[in-house]
Amino acid sequence: MIFAVGKLLRPGGADERRAAVLAWMTTIQALCALFFIGDVAFDLYAGDGQALGHLWMESFVAVVLLLGLGVLIVELRQLLLRMDRVTAGLMAARGEMAEVIEAFFSTWGLTPAERDVALMILKGLDNDSIATVRGRAAGTVRAQSAAIYAKAGVDGRTQFLSLFMEELLADPE
User: Domain of 74?
Assistant: First the structure.
């Protein structure tokens, strides 16, 4: 998300421009709300004898601005999350699947040995073949596979593979 926020300073794509506009609108709206809240507080403190209706109207405007500010912040957050998902999908589509795989592995906290086994699973090797290639016992590979599936939150090899297929086939929208 920090990457996306950094892009707000120099927007390029449509989503980035939209995020920049929302960020500026949020800032301006926050300043307007502060002005109205400060004005109401000053009028109450000064006791200028202004009409009560005027103070209620300014208070109402301040509340509406704050509610709108909340909506803008939620929309901006959702837009930035969407931009992150689209960026991950584009990376996969551009042949940068290795970086996508590495991001998944890092998120799951796989050990170096588990990473090797997971890559071989993605390449289509079965546990016995992985054990032969790595010079380990098949039981060790089965245990590492089970640990990988648990960390990925899946029940087995098929679901594990489907995580990456979904990433490749995901619609950027």
Answer: 2-93
Q: For 41-82, how does the pLDDT look when each residue is reduced to its tens digit (9 = 90+)?
A: 887 777 765 677 777 888 888 888 888 888 888 888 888 888
Spatial distance between the Cα atoms of 148 and 121, rounded to a whole number of angstroms: 10
Count of structural domains within the chain: 2
Q: Are residues 8 and 65 in the same domain?
A: yes
- CA-to-CA distance for 137 and 17, rounded, in angstroms? 54
pLDDT in tens, 100-134: 788 889 999 999 999 999 999 998 999 999 999 99
3-state helix, strand, coil in the chain (%, to 5): 80, 0, 20
What CATH number does the domain containing 119 carry? 1.10.10.10
What number of CA atoms fall less than 13 Å from residue 34's CA on the CB side? 6
The torsion angle over the Cα atoms of residues 65, 69, 70 and 73, rounded to 10 degrees, is: 170
The whole-angstrom separation of Cα 127 and Cα 125 is 7
- pTM across the whole model: 0.47
- For the chain, the farthest-separated pair of C-alpha atoms sits apart, in whole angstroms, at 89
Q: Report residue 73: phi and psi, to 5°.
A: -65, -45
